[in-house]
Design brief:
Layout (H helix, E strand, L loop, with lengths): L4 E3 L2 E3 L3 E3 L8 H9 L5 E7 H12 L4 H4 L18 H14 L4 E6 L9 H8 L3 E5 L11 H18 L4 E5 L6 H10 L4 E4 L7 E2 L6 E2 L10 H11 L6 E5 L5 H10 L3 E4 L1 H6 L3 H15 L5 H4 L11 H14 L4
Parallel strand pairs: 3-12, 4-5, 5-6, 6-7, 7-8, 8-11, 11-12
Antiparallel strand pairs: 1-2, 9-10
This protein binds flavin mononucleotide (FMN).
Flavin mononucleotide binds next to strand 4, strand 5 and helix 10.
Length: 330
């Protein structure tokens, strides 16, 4: 049975990859993930704000450790709060590349054009096999339209793509008015793949202290459904790769993402909950499902449930929406 897949032009032993997270901060853990079967590893992100801060400090010869976040607004983390400095990040890429055989994907996180995008070149020089650019942004300025937000994002993608010859994947949120069109615009801007979707870490109100509390809850399988819908809609149109991130917790979840059209499936919460060895269990489950259902390769099942055979996906979605609402009786 062939679990091998191609992602961003890279050959992977199987579609399960470790998503951007703290896992790769630790080379020993990264090796354990590889040994348990990870097809590739995505490192945690370096942030636009972090790169700007360090680069501005270098230009002005400011001691970062002493100056703290004087250059940043008070909302942002102190410089020392970032887990990896730029130098450490580059050394981490080299360390991982020296010890693991699977592709290492470095991650940049920002959404507006600027000098920071050139940092992708430093990833490449350090040995990264690809870059994942996370365009995380919550647009709150009433004067900026959705079109302007997306134009900035596309410019950012072009800058990153222009800085490197390794492939660039772009991780996006589901909050675009026309996600399929935006996915294709990302391809035109040079992205070799799209990663669906960012999770928004939704803050809650505390009714006692009147504070807003940011919180990071791990996902569950219910979050996969949004990804399945848009993977199924985007995959018939994309030339490049698609990756699912968010809500893959079981081997059935992984199979569903492939059926919707994903080339890879990124795992974070499930591995934080169950540890690296769980990758092996998931791969075993996928093999069993494929065997039971007569599939010999993941290529065979990829996209089998996407919207390719649906002549009018918009009408189909709208019809299902109406039917579901009509199905309730009280
Ligand atoms: C502790 C933690 C750290 C994360 N760090 C990053 C990051 O640095 N960059 C990024 O793009 N995504 C980051 N993510 C998001 C994950 O890559 C992933 O998209 C998200 O957790 C959804 O996948 P899951 O359902 O498998 O957890 C992080 C997630 C967690 C839980």
């Amino acid at each position: 049975m062939k679990l091998a897949t191609t992602y961003l032009g890279l050959k992977l032993s199987n579609p399960l990859i470790v998503g951007a997270s703290p896992f790769c901060d630790n080379v020993k853990l990264a090796c354990q993930l590889q040994d348990a079967g990870a097809g590739a590893l995505v490192m945690r992100s370096l942030f636009e704000e972090q790169i700007d801060l360090e680069q501005r400090a270098m230009v002005r010869d400011i001691e970062l450790a002493a100056s703290g976040s004087a250059e940043a607004t008070s909302y942002f983390p102190e410089y020392s709060e970032y887990q990896l400095s730029l130098d450490r990040y580059l050394r981490q890429i080299q360390g991982l590349k020296a010890l693991v055989k699977v592709p290492v994907i470095a991650s940049l996180n920002g959404y507006q054009p600027g000098g920071w995008t050139d940092f992708a070149r430093r990833f490449q020089e350090a040995g990264a096999d690809a870059v994942e650019l996370n365009l995380y942004n919550l647009a709150t300025d009433p004067n900026i339209s959705g079109a302007e937000v997306e134009a900035d994002m596309l410019e950012t993608v072009k800058s990153v793509v222009g800085a490197v010859h390794i492939p660039v994947a772009v991780k996006i949120s589901s909050f675009h008015a026309s996600p399929v069109n935006f996915g294709l615009e990302l391809e035109k801007a040079g992205a070799k793949g799209v990663v669906l979707f960012n999770r928004f870490y939704q803050p809650d109100f505390n009714l006692e202290d009147f504070e807003v509390h940011p919180q990071l809850k791990l996902s569950d399988s219910s979050e996969l459904l949004l990804r399945l819908r848009w993977l199924a809609n985007l995959s018939p149109h994309m030339k490049g790769s698609l990756s699912a991130t968010g809500g893959v917790h079981t081997s059935d979840d992984a199979i569903k993402a492939l059926l919707a059209g994903a080339h890879t499936i990124q795992l974070v919460s499930v591995l934080l909950k169950n540890g690296p060895r769980y990758l092996y269990t998931l791969l075993q489950g996928m093999r069993k499902w494929m065997e039971d259902h007569g599939y010999e390769s993941v290529d065979q099942l990829r996209g089998a449930l996407n919207q390719r055979r649906c002549p009018d996906p918009s009408a189909y979605e709208r019809a299902n929406y109406i039917r579901v609402l009509q199905s309730w009786r009280v």
